Amino acid sequence: MLHRPLFRRLALASGALISLLAVTSTNAASDRKFVTTPTLSVEARTLVNLLEQAHYNRDAVDPADYGQVVENYMGDLDGQRLFFLATDKQKFNEQFGGKAIYWNLYSLGNIDAAYEIFRLYEDRAHARINWIFEELNKEFDLSGQDTYRVDRSKSEWAATPAAADALWRQRLKFELISELMNKKSMDEAKQTVRKRYERMLKNVADLELNDVAELFLSNIARIYDPHSTYFSADTFEDFGIQMKLQLVGIGALLGIEEDYCFVKEIVPGGPADLGKQLKPNDKIIAVAQPGSEPVEIIGMKLRKVVEMIRGTKGSQVKLIVEPADATDASTRKEITIVRDVVKLNSARARAAVFQVPDATGQTTVPLGVITLPAFYGPADSEDPEAEKTSATKDVARLIEQLKDAGIKGLVLDLRHNGGGYLSEAVDLTGLFISRGPVVQVKNYAGEIQIDNDNDPAVAYQGPLAVLVDRFSASASEIVTGALQNYGRAIVIGDTSTHGKGSVQTVLEMKNLVPQLARTGEKSGAAKFTVQKYYLPNGSSTQLKGVVPDIVLPSIDEFLPIGEGSLPHALVWDEIPTSFFDGSPLDAKVLTTLREASQRRQAQLDEFAYLRKNVDWFKVRQEQKLVSLNLQARQQQKETDETFRKEMKTKKEELAKSDFPFREFRLGPPPPPKIKAEPKEGDLPEAVEDELSTDESDESYAKVDVHLRESLRVLNDAVELGESPQYWASNHPPLTLAAVNRKG
């Protein structure tokens, strides 16, 4: 079973269908027939033209390549290769393979192929789930020696219906054993599995024409590279919300369960939180706009519910709610909430000052940490007085607070930072260098543009380290690579960063096609790659990423999360170096810091703890087949639980030596998140990841081995700054002065 934070990571990368099948409705098996609408036809043709004319990789794709969309799209619909048959793939390849899809899109804007394939998937799902309901009435032998491949995403579809039946019998055994191991009876386990597939039927019925089109057209875009995609109008709106870190609404996370919309979580500081009327687990029965009758939302698609609840700032929305604590299911309460800007502060920068023991262990050194989850830009707002938030402005503010607190060095934590605005990467790098090239950008024609930091002002001039992992991508790699090129920081983390060295642009369809703009309706958008970027020294971060100066053990090394694991990834290359006043850290500095870290990695208990966890995780990742013998699974579970208890005890012991810290946040400290309590019958969550670096509500994680070691390395660098024999050009290492070596 995957650990909870790891499950989150993998879920983000496991295909578009997960998000599309996340909610349910009351719609049953349908006789509906999707056809390409005039609007979708225009958007499909526009997408193909954009990709052919403006995509960086356009010459690498020809019409025949469009044929591979068939299998990729089938795989997105049926991610575990359980519903379709191999003969289905053969049939659709013959019907739509080669250049057929291309010419239908290019000439006609026709995506009926997507709907025909989806219709068969829908039929297969209904037939299979009805078969499952029949099978659940039978007895299951869980004492045999057969196994099941849990991850079938790379497997072939079953060759025949009989082979598919055999595969599904294994699948059902696997699911039943999972429930039995959570202290359920066989009858309870069967009921849970049955409900799961009842929900799936509703999920499939809930998919609409635009959902299917988005899935199909995104596969078209990904032929060119893995970061190009098509956004439906609704997805495009959600994309803008994430980039701006705010939306206008009530500040509640909603979910769907058995056709009812319920409150999963209240966002701290949002209108719902401030109103104190809406509570977690409350069921929302109806929604009313001012002056209108309430509209019942039972069985309605979650996205539609959210659209009804969102609105303009200052407007009211009325919710008819069944309170979670109601003893009578007929109890109703009317709540009026004034919509307001809800800032998504979980992605904003935050900081802390850690007290790290010096070499003697007798005194401590104050070292700062700034955690930046994304490179966000200024948020649009209807209020001219509203704060314009950006990553650079937030980090600059935090730097001033940390300097006032007397820090001797700073760690910039870019782990799990997937990027964001390129301009923010340039500006943020400028906080640590006086001026000069930060990134070089090359377009399809080979034209190179250099983005410089032209501001001589420097926010922080002291010793600096950058902490990264395999999830640090794009803008994170620009900042990390530039600071490494300048010799401005020591880079610490996994064996490399993600390796995303491409630049995307997002164009809304109605801004490209006048006839779409005239309708006044929301339109979709295309995100596609238009440039590659290179570090000041001319090296691309594409595929290879940024290689840290000091490497730490990590479970990330055993996950398929790098750019190289993505299909159609662009190649690595180099361009001429730009002219910049700096060079990588002196070898004697790097060697000294690296050797000190390696000694600690060999001696400290926390690294033995880390390696033991990594080794255990590696074994579990390599275990492709799972036993369908209940007794064997129970024995393995007991072994795993014994290991986790041992690691938990060890973690609690190690936590006693965590460095004391004082936290800094932008604005008042947020209240604890208000979450719904687990409901009876909910599937159990994955066990807590002992290696988790997820933050709690108000503090940094306990026993964050990578951060602890980064602070020690930084402390070593501070001490080297006091030893002239390690200086280059009469300047201490890891400081701004060390960069300007000509003087």
Automatic annotation (TrEMBL):
SUPFAM superfamilies referenced in this protein's UniProt entry, alphabetically: ClpP/crotonase, PDZ domain-like
EC number: 3.4.21.102
Single GO BP term: proteolysis
Superkingdom, taxonomy of origin: Bacteria
Region (Disordered): 661-700
GO CC annotation: outer membrane-bounded periplasmic space
Gene3D superfamilies for this protein: 2-enoyl-CoA Hydratase, Chain A, domain 1, 2.30.42.10
Top-level EC class as recorded in UniProt: hydrolase
Signal peptide: 1-28
Limits of the PDZ domain: 242-312
Keywords, comma-separated and alphabetical: Hydrolase, Protease, Serine protease, Signal
GO molecular function: serine-type endopeptidase activity
Bias type Acidic residues, positions: 683-698
Family to which this protein belongs: Belongs to the peptidase S41A family.
Official protein name in the record: Carboxyl-terminal protease
Lineage: Bacteria, Pseudomonadati, Verrucomicrobiota, Opitutia, Opitutales
